[in-house]
Write a structure and sequence with these properties.
Blueprint: E1 27-35, E2 45-47, E3 51-57, E4 59-64, E5 70-73, E6 77-80, E7 87-92, E8 99-107, E9 114-116, H1 119-124
Antiparallel strand pairs: 1-8, 2-9, 3-6, 3-8, 4-5, 4-7
Length: about 130
Amino acid sequence: MTHAEPRTNSVLTMLASQTPSIPDGAHVMTATIELPPGDAGTPPHRHSGPVFGYLLEGEMIFELEGEPERVIKAGEAFWEPGGDVIHYQAANNLAGAWSRFVVVMICAPGQEMLTFVGADELAERAGRRAPRN
């Protein structure tokens, strides 16, 4: 007996593809984040594991250590590797509108998902930050 492949009307659009390192025992969190108009977002921090995101609405200024800041617009995906990389910015680029995104965060076992980076460490690692516009 031959089995026909199932039919579907669904449309798959690939937004991003990465091969992150995921330790055994990690757990995954999915969240939405809403940034008020002109909001600077979370202060510099790092994540214990990789983070994958998709901007639902608005525009976000996104900056990771070693990369120039860039603007991500609604409908675009982004990611960060987590670990030792500092996440400098996830700010609302719009002064008159909210920006909203969804993130999937993979948390390393026994670690916090988000750790703030202090002023001393920021100064110590200043040479790793890409030149700013």
